[in-house]
């Protein structure tokens, strides 16, 4: 065999590209995955996956937001002679709302978007095309492989809900997971940040701002004092304390039901709704940042009073968005991932990310999971495109992972 021969099975790249363009053409923003799940199912059947191997779980019945379907789960029985533990390959089916109306077009070694005001949706239709190509190539080339579970999750973009609420028992006893959701196939993401999302309902008291402002309690003033305190304490934006690092942000400040806070310039604002988040690779520090916001809002509400000494009120709710994780460099899943990247002739780049991934929840469910890229670029923007060299690498990497040791 000449030294330049590929160490990994080849992929029909024209068929893989056709799948990618096909999936990019189907709208399926977060929570509305019905059409794309049907398109993926059709493509799997065309590739030779039996209909009986394709199911939906009931995760959508547990997701607090309306969601058209459950996660799509495909089980491919093992074909290798040597018994081996089942492996999980996963990706998310949904895209961000900005992708509605995308029109993919192949341009050289890229897929770009002809629709001017939309994102393309390579995040994460690249992953969908990688998983379907994996199944298609295993069947077409009759390659021996261990039992495989393919998982296409819903509602990743709106809060990792599909991965969070799934039942791990539905996944066929998989020993480890490979998630496709990123830019470069050589990047092996072995850790990710954790985050809280929180909201505050600040209640003051309305009064005529010109005639009797002293009878009012301004919710706007409470919010301002609270945020000034958070800022002064070093808890806003980039947070560094005692060797720990994290971030926080106030995302929206508004009134009830998506309306602006306050009714008119001559009325003391009686209600403000604030939404924010806290992040860190240290789970305890995430909670400390969130606690600093809670304390600041509570104190500010007590400080602003009307003429009879009655204070305002801040009701603070936080929920764990996802827990941080860091897999060990010598964990079997990381070693298998690094070996597969090396088999492509590339240098594995082990890294951690400051965004949440479905992998955060898989690790929490007890399934060690690494994440790779497959060509997404400039995601969540109208400049989004897919790098076809990385997409092809992602397809070959999946095949190497499924057929390697
Ligand atoms: Zn994604």
Any overview of this molecule?
- It is a single chain.
- With 405 residues, the protein is an alpha+beta fold.
- The chain has two domains: 13-192 and 325-403, Aminopeptidase (3-Layer(aba) Sandwich); 194-322, 2-Layer Sandwich (Alpha-Beta Plaits).
- Helix content is 29%, strand content 25%.
- It has nine helices and 18 strands.
- The chain has helices at 13-24, 34-46, 122-140, 161-165, 219-232, 283-303, 332-343, 358-364, 388-403; strands at residues 54-56, 72-76, 87-92, 104-107, 110-113, 148-153, 176-180, 187-192, 194-203, 237-241, 244-254, 271-280, 313-322, 325-326, 349-353, 369-372, 376-377, 385-387.
- The strands form four sheets. Strands 1-2-6-3-7-16 form a six-stranded mixed sheet, sandwiched between helices. The protein has a five-stranded antiparallel sheet with strand order 10-11-12-9-13. Strands 4-5-18-17 form a four-stranded antiparallel sheet.
- Strand 4 (104-107) and strand 5 form a beta hairpin.
- Helix 1 (13-24) runs antiparallel to helix 3 (122-140), helix 3 crosses helix 9 (388-403) and helix 7 packs across helix 9.
- It is elongated, with a radius of gyration of 24 Å.
- The two termini are 21 Å apart.
- The model is unreliable at 1-6 (pLDDT under 50).
- Zinc ion is lined by residues 92, 123-124, 156, 181.
């Amino acid at each position: 065999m000449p030294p330049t021969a590929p160490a990994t099975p080849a992929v029909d790249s024209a068929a893989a590209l056709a799948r990618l363009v096909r999936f990019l053409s189907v709208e399926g923003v977060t929570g509305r995955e019905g059409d794309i799940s049907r398109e993926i199912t059709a493509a799997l059947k065309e590739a030779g996956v039996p209909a009986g191997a394709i199911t939906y779980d009931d995760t959508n019945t547990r997701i607090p937001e309306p969601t058209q379907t459950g996660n799509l789960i495909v089980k491919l029985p093992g074909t290798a002679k040597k018994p081996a533990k089942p492996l999980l390959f996963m990706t998310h089916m949904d895209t961000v709302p900005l992708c509605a109306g995308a029109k993919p077009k192949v341009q050289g070694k890229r897929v770009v978007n002809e629709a001017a005001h939309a994102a393309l949706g390579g995040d994460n239709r690249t992953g969908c095309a990688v998983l379907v190509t994996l199944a298609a190539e295993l069947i077409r080339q009759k390659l021996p492989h261990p039992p495989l579970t393919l998982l296409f999750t819903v509602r990743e973009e709106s809060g990792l809900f599909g991965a969070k609420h799934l039942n791990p028992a539905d996944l066929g006893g998989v020993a480890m997971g490979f998630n496709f959701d990123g830019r470069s196939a050589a990047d092996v993401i072995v850790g990710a940040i954790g985050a809280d999302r929180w909201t505050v309902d600040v209640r003051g008291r309305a009064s005529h701002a010109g005639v009797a402002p002293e009878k009012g309690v301004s919710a706007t003033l409470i919010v301002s004092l609270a945020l000034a305190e958070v800022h002064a304490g070093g808890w806003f934006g980039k947070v560094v304390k005692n060797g720990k690092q994290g971030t926080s942000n106030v995302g929206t400040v508004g009134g009830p039901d998506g309306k602006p806070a306050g009714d008119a310039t001559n009325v003391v604002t009686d209600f403000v709704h604030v939404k924010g988040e806290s992040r860190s690779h240290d789970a305890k520090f995430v909670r400390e940042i969130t606690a600093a916001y809670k304390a600041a809002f509570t104190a500010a509400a007590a400080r602003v009073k009307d003429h009879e000494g009655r204070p305002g009120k801040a009701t603070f709710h936080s929920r764990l968005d996802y827990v941080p994780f860091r897999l060990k460099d010598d964990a079997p899943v990381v070693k298998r991932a690094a070996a597969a990247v090396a088999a492509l002739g590339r240098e594995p780049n082990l890294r951690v990310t400051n965004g949440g991934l479905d992998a955060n929840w898989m690790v929490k469910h007890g399934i060690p999971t690494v994440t790779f890229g497959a060509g997404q670029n400039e995601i969540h923007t109208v400049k989004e495109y897919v790098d076809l060299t990385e997409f092809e690498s992602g397809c070959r990497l999946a095949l190497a992972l499924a057929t390697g040791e």
